[in-house]
Amino acid sequence: MESVTVVDSLRAVDAEEWNALAGKQPFVRHEFLSALIETGCASPRSGWTPQFLLARRAGALVGAMPLFAKSHSYGEYVFDWAWADAHERHGVDYYPKLLGAIPFTPVRGQRLLGEKDLLVDAALQLAREYSSLHVLFPAEEDLGALLGRGMMLRRTVQFHWRNAGYADFEDFLGRMTHQRRKNIRQERRKVREAGVTCTWLDGHAIERRHWEFFNRCYRRTYAEHRSTPYLSLDFFLRVGAALPEHMALVIAERAGRPLAASLFFRDQSSLYGRYWGAVEHVPLLHFECCYYQAIEYAIARGLKVFEGGAQGEHKIFRGLLPVEGPSAHWLAHPRFARAVEDFLRREGAGITHYVDELREHSPFKQPKEEK
Predict the structure, then answer these.
(1) C-alpha angle 96-100-106 in degrees, rounded to nearest 5
(2) What pTM does this model have?
């Protein structure tokens, strides 16, 4: 017999059973999601009310979907503020809305764990209690199931580095144009001349003192942008202890004093750049910690992809090329659904043109270009 239930916590869900559906990427694992919820980072008090779907057949978990009822649109990286404003101006509530996403994580991956069609149908049924359903950055196979049920496609732009079988960082630079290769070498040299060195820490080598320093850097970055950080030291400590095999931290130092830190997650094939911060400004250190160190790390470990995250055209010149990040959307109100569908059609054409333009600025040599 088949059943679908909604839960507001993963405490009663067996971690092994959930993770058997979740696969290898860290962000959909039981430990990561539980850490977000139980430390209060993604909880009702922060505007993220868990509404996770669990599908069972003969008592066994055959499907799961992380869903949240949202009272705002922060921490999503797919911006729908204009949609919310249009609803409110016409006297129609947009919040709460239903969101299928990994909080604060613009990384493409599974959103439908297990029985996809069953989960989409259940999510759309649940969404009738809300204004809308939004599933952000789904994997390709999930996207097909979502669009096949009538949800609307939206595309955004991210920047990823791909490993073309590079032997080392110099081999990577050797595939670039002369000017870009020269610029990167100059940037790295200036960081070295400032007396800065970088150290990588993996897994259990990341001690509490390192997490405390990283958290200080992370919070400072948000303060400099007059924003409130989404995550807490408790979250970092918990996920670091629960998923050490997925954690990597680079710390920049000068004369034995830490200056900056950049946090990455990883799995068997990919490195995911997440958060950065510094307690002292050093010119070009951001590029070193967030991009060049990451590319070196990925090459040394044979990782196929380094995802540099959303936004930032400056990433192109450092070897991260534009890719499209999809999302799927359903709106309950027919009038707004038609308006959004028309908007997405026009926006999608613009995104395609934008990506084509960006790719024209690739830093890599063309096949016939001289070395």
Answers:
(1) 110
(2) 0.95
